[in-house]
Amino acid sequence: MALIVQKYGGSSVADAERIRNVARRIIATKEKGNDVAVVVSAMGDTTDELISLAHQITDEPDERELDVLLSTGEIVSSTLLAMALNSMGYEAVSLSGSQAGIRTDSAYTRARILAVESQRIVKELEGDKIVIVAGFQGITPDMDIATLGRGGSDTTAVALAASLGAQICEVYTDVEGIYTADPRLVPEARKLEEIGYDEMLELASYGSRVIHSRAVELGELYNIPILVASSFTERPGTMIHGGVSMEVRNKVRGIAHDLDIAKVTILGVPDRPGIATQIFEPLARENVSIDTIVQNASVERVTDLTFTVAKNNLPRAMRVVELVAQAIGARECVANSKLGKVSIVGTGMQNAPGYAARMFRTLYEQGINIELITTSEIRITCIIDEARVPDAVVALHRAFELEKEEEQ
Amino acid sequence: MALIVQKYGGSSVADAERIRNVARRIIATKEKGNDVAVVVSAMGDTTDELISLAHQITDEPDERELDVLLSTGEIVSSTLLAMALNSMGYEAVSLSGSQAGIRTDSAYTRARILAVESQRIVKELEGDKIVIVAGFQGITPDMDIATLGRGGSDTTAVALAASLGAQICEVYTDVEGIYTADPRLVPEARKLEEIGYDEMLELASYGSRVIHSRAVELGELYNIPILVASSFTERPGTMIHGGVSMEVRNKVRGIAHDLDIAKVTILGVPDRPGIATQIFEPLARENVSIDTIVQNASVERVTDLTFTVAKNNLPRAMRVVELVAQAIGARECVANSKLGKVSIVGTGMQNAPGYAARMFRTLYEQGINIELITTSEIRITCIIDEARVPDAVVALHRAFELEKEEEQ
To answer: Which chain B residues have a beta carbon less than 8 Å from that of A50?
Structure first.
């Protein structure tokens, strides 16, 4: 008998009717002869509502307490889904992250899964029960609750699939799969039948919000195929796996974009060893997460250093950097919060020349100025004016002919 | 250093402002040099809202799942209170019933506390932290969540006080203490400075909803003084304890009433051994909780048997009883759901004659018909027309002169 892990996102369990709909989908999977373990997110906007409740108490809620508070959202939806299944005649049992044996480190609000002690889940599955696990949470070595950060339920699902030896992890959400670009920007964007873990990681990290990147990393590590599909239709989704054929396809697989980019440039930085440490250590201490770093070639032992952060981190970053700039004798700090980025992603690009050139030409033809360029082996990213991001995505999608069906 | 256990009810933590108010009260207790462990109920109407959410899924939610769902209400309020304390500069930590070591049996929705394994609480108190425990819940031998039934947070608090060897258990609510009668019915009702456990139990079981009767039982068993007071004022409350002086006081301590009474009478029951078993065993199997039972003296080997139940149990009780009546050859079943009851309670009554007579005369003078009478050693209860209950309470309060200060 195969074991299937399914994950349902917050919009899929947003109200009683949707929860019953999810229950019917789970039953269909069970009726095909599978064991089913399910991971659920909190209903709809519950997590945001709980955060707002905490902020009514204090501007800076204690992180341990915040995690316990937020963990209740997934517990509520897991019990309701178990009730729905039981009322339809299928034995189901909800388990909190703690009961499900999800062991994490103690980094509240951003904990990492250390292990899954799955005895309880296995026992319930052996009793022919459908197991519903509250996502996004686990238990620390001190027996406290910790959450995995936003999108953490995806990670819970893939970790469970790995530890239980599941055949597949199915992630159900409100979109039908992974597209060549955001369909809201590019109407002719095409749903991909399959995508490699690496490509998905670049798309996930670089602005495609469909699945959490840590879940994809875990999937790659344990070689768990991940299906991303809609809980509202029966249409096939996108399979994320390792065996994607590399040679015969369009070498650009998708366009990612992100509007949440702010840029800080420190001008006239003395170019001497240790200077980067002096700048980035204080930022790390202030918990400013840095996205991209670019340092220009040095001219007369003085250089300019640029990095990007999420927009809400900009005030904090500037406070830190202005002090540092003074200390190291840099000339000036400049910020720009009206930026976005656009990336082309594809495993095939690394050994095929001309992709970067075609990307830059496409942007040039749209009259879009490139502020920064960064690349990985399978991705090229340009940081541009946020107002031009939609045009850039559309133009790049067309330039790389992503609307065309791939040859098999 | 003294250890004080405080319990705050749902109305005391109904919103952020009230939670901050509770935090300030806890800090005042801490600042007097006490260790403080706190038990909280769910905020305001949370429990009702969660029950209504479950009923949107199914009419008969699975009890195990319902308990997990309801337990989140107290977890939410415990984290918010801990956040408030932390933000005011006092280290606090919230613990779920499970983390606090509240071990219960597996009777979902009405679990009993088996033991309190208080190591974690003790460790946190030794670290000079204020401990906030989510009330109303515990963990079963199978490591599942079970709740203690409505009002269960009072029981959690007294159980904690007993296991931690606390000096006192303070129960804060939205009334100022225990009154000689419900002040909404009797404006001249007087707040009692103190009351004995037994008297409080009769008042609590017989319709005074201020504190849960199981909590009072536990308090008596472990001799924990329980203070009932308001979280909204600084006025003194009522102390429930064992050392109440018995002789010099008014022998009637208070009037209890309850409007939730329905009566079932089985007429023409053959009077033979085992007949009560044949009637009440099927009712127990159907989970009908019986309040009062009265059997009339037998006339010609045929008797009438009457019992009372909560009004919402009446349809179920009648279904059972009509089948049983047929089986045992009884003549007929009659129900009356428009009843209430009124009781006078006081330890002194048992050795002093004339209280029953004065009660019956008072009701007679009001033109109130008595449907049933039951007594305990320290209580006399009359079941009457529900519409006349308020008149009865007012008249009895006056007849026994409860508005007068007691002599000390």
So the answer is: 76
> How is chain A split into domains, by residue range?
3-174, 255-399
What 3-state DSSP class applies to B11?
helix
Average pLDDT (A212-228) is 94
Beta pairing, strands B290-295 & B254-270: unpaired
For residues B216 and B304, what is the distance between their CA atoms, to the nearest angstrom? 35
- pTM comes to 0.85
Q: Is the dihedral of CA A96, A99, A102, A106 positive or negative?
A: positive
Q: To which CATH superfamily is domain A255-399 assigned?
A: VC0802-like (3.30.2130.10)
pLDDT of residue A406: 65
Phi then psi for residue A305, to 5 deg, are -125, 130
Polymer length of chain B: 408
Beta strands across the sheet bearing B290-295: B290-295, B302-309, B254-270, B332-345, B379-385, B370-376
Nearest to A57 among B19, B98, B120 (CB): B19
Q: DSSP string of B48-103?
A: HHHHHHHHHH-SS--HHHHHHHHHHHHHHHHHHHHHHHHHTT--EEEE-TTTTTEE
Preferred mutation among A52, A71, A78, A83 to probe B, highest tally of B CBs within 10 A: A83
Tokens standing for residue A201: 């990681």
Pairing mode, if any, of strands A238-241 and A226-230?
antiparallel
Check CB contact of A326 with chain B, cutoff 8 Å: no
Average pLDDT over every residue of B159-185:
94
- Span A319-377, pLDDT tens digits: 999 999 999 999 999 999 999 999 999 887 766 678 888 899 999 999 999 988 888 88
Q: Which of A124-138, A206-220, B106-120, B318-332 has the lowest mean pLDDT?
A: A206-220
Q: What is the ipTM of this complex?
A: 0.82
Segment A187-201, tens digit of pLDDT: 999 999 999 998 898
Burial class (CB in 10 A: 0-12, 13-18, 19+), B160: buried
Cβ-based burial of A31 (10 A; exposed 0-12, middle 13-18, buried ≥19): exposed
Partner residue opposite B61 with nearest CB, options A19, A69, A83 = A83
CATH top-level class for B3-174?
alpha beta
- For the stretch B58-103, pLDDT in tens is 999 999 999 999 999 999 999 999 999 999 999 999 999 999 999 9
Q: Does any CB of chain B come closer than 8 Å to the CB of residue A290?
A: no
Residue pair A197/A229 in contact by the 8 Å Cβ criterion: no
Euclidean distance between CA atoms A118 and B346, whole angstroms: 56
